[in-house]
Amino acid sequence: MVKLVCSETKEFFNSDEHRWISNTGALLDISFIPKFDIKKIHSRSKNLWRYREAIPIEHNKNIISVDEGFTPLIKIKFDKKDVWIKQDQLFSSGSYKDRGATVLMSKAKELGVKKVVQDSSGNAGCAIAMYAALSNIECDIYVPFETGEKKLAQITSYGAKIHKIPGTREDTAEAAFNAANKSYYASHCWNPFFFHGTKTFAYEVCEQLNWKAPDALVLPVGNGTLVIGCYIGFTELLNAGIISKIPKIIAVQSENCAPLFHAFNNGLNDIQSIKTSKTIAEGIAIAKPIRSKQILEYVKASKGEFLTVNENEIFEALKFCGNIGHYIEPTSAAVIAGLRKYITMSENEVIVSLFSGHGLKH
Ligand SMILES: *Cc1c(COP(=O)(O)O)cnc(C)c1O
Q1: Has residue 330 got a pLDDT over 90?
Q2: Which segments within the chain are labelled E, that is strand?
Q3: Which of the four CATH numbers 3.40.50.1100, 3.30.200.20, 3.30.565.10, 3.30.950.10 does domain 97-185 have?
């Protein structure tokens, strides 16, 4: 049985409720025991739904899919060291956010939702808008007032409606949060079904390495959709007896906006208010990630750490990737900058990282 569980009181809710928040206003997680039948998995199409029994959707008829996932895992030499890079820039909407969106919007369809709201002018907005179009669900995307038209072009192309909100990024989030009272909040931060899509990154990496876990994962972290997803996914594989350890999660932030890095290195279990400045890695420039406690807990439990990269390192990584034929967006280059830093500290480890977003987006 799939249940929703309050992250604070541990109270359970049925997953057929249109619910994305607990009664006390706390975050929800999902309680569910996934199954992995390796023979069955191998017999299926190469997309992320091959792990069907590990994804908490009740009925196949509700699945909204365009054959997404099972992206190539390729070996690339970075500074003389071989690293596995997952090509998640190749998803249909241009980033790994499609992993979360295919599962979340399948759940929205299963619930009979007529309309979703979401707040993001970036890749999460694009992915939700795309899957909303595929499921014939109305979609309202809330963005800060000054968001450029170019950034909104992809979202509008899927037929979603844009709401421009004056004020800060937090004001936009609040407007979407309030609108979600009358519809369903397809938030990549609040809605726990999103993370049960991003977790398929872990399953695919494990299968592509012959059902073994790597030693380390170098991942981006802003709101933590991939960090949390990977921790959930690898923990499920561990509990199912498929792997014997969870990889260390090396989470990369931009030096100009690194609340998690600072909290972690000060031994805190939650973030403090910090000074931030502009960064070209816009996708991870999140000053107050709502799942901050969870992210800090998971990175610690994986025996991992946080790294920061500066603007120059991000720019260098972007050029480096272009020179080897991979066109990625600056946020994605921040991860590669972190990876290059991590390589210098690591010995004889199997390392997996990714291209998180396509360069043509920018
Ligand atoms: C969303 C995103 C990230 C960071 O993800 P968080 O959920 O904020 O941690 C990194 N790269 C790209 C391209 C993204 O779209």
Answers
A1: yes
A2: 3-6, 12-14, 28-31, 73-78, 81-86, 115-119, 138-144, 161-165, 184-185, 216-220, 248-254, 305-309, 351-354
A3: 3.40.50.1100
Q: The domain at 73-92+195-361 falls in which architecture?
A: 3-Layer(aba) Sandwich (3.40)
Neighbours of 176 (CB within 10 A): 24
Is residue 252 over pLDDT 80? yes
Range list for CATH 3.40.50.1100 in the chain: 73-92+195-361, 97-185
CB-based pocket (< 6 A), ligand 1: 95, 97, 123, 220-226, 283-284, 286, 329, 331-332, 356-357
Q: Give 80-128 pLDDT, tens digit per residue.
A: 899 999 999 999 999 999 999 999 999 999 999 999 999 987 899 999 9
Q: Ligand 1 pocket: which of 85, 86, 93, 95 to mutate (most atoms <8 Å of CB)?
A: 95
pTM of the prediction? 0.97
